[in-house]
Amino acid sequence: MRAGYERLAGLGEVLGRVRELSAQTVVFDVEPLVAYWDSGQEALDRGIALVLSRVTTVPGVQVVCFATNSLRRPSGVPGGAGVRVVYLASAGKPLRVAAYRGFPRPGVVIGDQVATDGVLARRLGYSFVLYRPPGRIPAGPQLMNRLGRLVRPLLFTRAG
Question: Above 70 in pLDDT, residue 148?
Answer without folding.
Answer: no
